[in-house]
């Protein structure tokens, strides 16, 4: 029996053609399990250990995921001049070309070797809400160019949001909050939820020379739901302060495992006693915690540094970034403070975005870099201090 959880040190990915790295032993949450207690325990441990975990049996069919990836590929297969007609607008919706984003400028010589496509929550232009950062209308390829594309992506946007909500309910329980804590209208009732299709062109990464598929970063929102194809590349660094940093692969978790470490085709992988149900069962999502949840939980749950190394093969992934509404006051959760861990920061989700926008971070990069995040957080503290006067 292959047990990815116990598949720790000693396993490497040498046949990826890049520097060998261990495979990370991540927890796996079965969203269909009636045993909520076990799911919450596993999830809590995952959030404390690494801020990364797999989610299986999430309810989105394999067939539909195949359609979403096929449509994504069709878009990226368009000639560059066609894609440039869909270039991202001022609301950061639409196409972002290769090297446009620079997630880790301190360690990258060029930008990320990936192209992307942003799809947010659609709010019509005549709705005053559309004036707020990250709300607005999407950019769509015409039905003539890509039939059914818009419909597929809109459906995935909705279905993936439900998976995120299911995960956020387990997170609420893991933080000793009411199960529906994050479901409130001002939180995930009106979320800032952004789908991002990604295509890595197949450039071989060379970390020592600053070449990455995606540079090291942590996501800045609440949680991110990531779907990937069978090509490995995602790595995490559980301790961002360690020197040297230790990077571990997070391989795609499938009904049939694709990585050499877990390729015993005769047996289905067990992950922390969760059986990935059958060869036709849905592929796992990778979920990771963002900087906002780290703040909200007063540093108890941590966001984790991650990056993507290209192994020379083309790779597709789909990230879904979820944050609460602009009106959400991200103040220390009641269950995350004590005498030894007093509340640290108060941030308006709205301020979070406004500050990023006003500092132009989003003008050069679709999302802020790690170092930008740090600078931004410092700034938010100053601004919030001025506005709320509670320091
Ligand atoms: O493509 C991946 O596997 C990760 C992408 C990612 O980390 C991001 O877009 O924030
Ligand atoms: Fe990320």
Automatic annotation (TrEMBL):
Gene Ontology terms, MF aspect: 2-oxoglutarate-dependent dioxygenase activity; L-ascorbic acid binding; metal ion binding
The taxonomic lineage of its organism, from the top, reads: Eukaryota, Viridiplantae, Streptophyta, Embryophyta, Tracheophyta
Q: Which residues form the Fe2OG dioxygenase domain?
A: 191-324
Q: Which SUPFAM superfamilies match?
A: Clavaminate synthase-like
Q: Which residues form a coiled coil?
A: none
Q: Which organism is it from?
A: Solanum commersonii (Commerson's wild potato)
Per its UniProt entry, which superkingdom is the organism in? Eukaryota
Family to which the UniProt record says this protein belongs: Belongs to the iron/ascorbate-dependent oxidoreductase family.
Q: What is this protein called?
A: Fe2OG dioxygenase domain-containing protein
Q: Which GO terms describe its biological process?
A: coumarin biosynthetic process; response to molecule of fungal origin
Q: Which UniProt keywords apply?
A: Iron, Metal-binding, Oxidoreductase, Vitamin C
Pfam families with a match to the protein in the record: 2OG-FeII_Oxy (PF03171), DIOX_N (PF14226)
